[in-house]
Amino acid sequence: MMEAHQISDQVTVMVRPDWMRMFVVGNVSIISTSEGLVLFDAGNGPKVANQVIQEIQKKTNLPVKYIIISHGHIDHTGGLETYRNIWPNLEIIGHHTLYPYMKRDVKRVKSFARDRHKRWLKRDSFMNDVRSLYKDSPQIIRYFGQYYIDDVKELAEEYEKTNVILPTITFSDSLDIRLGNRQLRVFKAGNANTPSDILLYLPDEKILFTGDVMTRPVPYGFTSYGKEWLEVLEKLKSLDIEWLVPGHGEPLKGNEYLHKFSDLFSLVIQQMKDGIKDGKSAKEIRSSISLGDIRNFFTQGDAVANFRLDTWFLDPFVSRNYKTLIDE
Predict the structure, then answer these.
(1) Domain residue ranges in the chain
(2) What is the pTM for the complete model shown?
(3) I want to staple 82 with a disulfide (CB 3.0 to 4.6 A). Which of 49, 91, 290, 300 is the partner?
(4) Top mean-pLDDT range of 1-10, 98-107, 156-165
């Protein structure tokens, strides 16, 4: 169930409360204007989309005019068809690289979900392996049992219903939208989480919607563009931000999280560069990375958050970006 977070009179952010639950579900933001609504991202499939539609229809009869897609991962695009069935004239906005990326990602995630569904069918054996592997971490065992096992079947079935929907408006660098009483600035700041990343800024209210360029409580490093991502974060510091809406997790006031996010990337990349200079392998670098106090800022000492900071960010980030840093 998605929860509604009202951050201004005309902006509501729909968030799944347990941000690290498997599979993850991206935030959906609802932006109201005098002439219709704009959504930032679409959720992962029909179930979430229908919850967002119910929230909209509780408040207004105005149609959704635009859906802006932050990037091509299925947990942000999977609900598109459901919205279009309700509002067939809506425009779908994305970067010009969005459609080919979406097409690959839907195929990848459906395959991944089928694999996890097979694991769900053998869940007793799987949980025995989890208990053995994480015998000293009861929180992680509970996490796998409560969410991974409980959610996999439902979400695997949800993803099977997902079709790739073409964007109707694409751009390369930036796009300004004027709808009713509101100005929206959509822009690409560079490759970060994917090559299709775009962001939305509302200058009147100073609200930044980041997609998965920023996520809570931890970043996702699976498809990361390490050094470029850091450059994107540095660019975003020039914006006047009163509210920051990440791709996952509750919205935040101010820009502290942006600075901490940038600090984390800077620290990891510098330690990777130092390790490469010393001739270390990717595996050796990964085992030597130390985050110090900044780890606790993101995880608050929570065992599952620490586990996911390692497995969703550090492990894939180092593996993916090692060769790129060597080639510099």
Answers:
(1) 3-100+163-258, 263-326
(2) 0.95
(3) 49
(4) 1-10
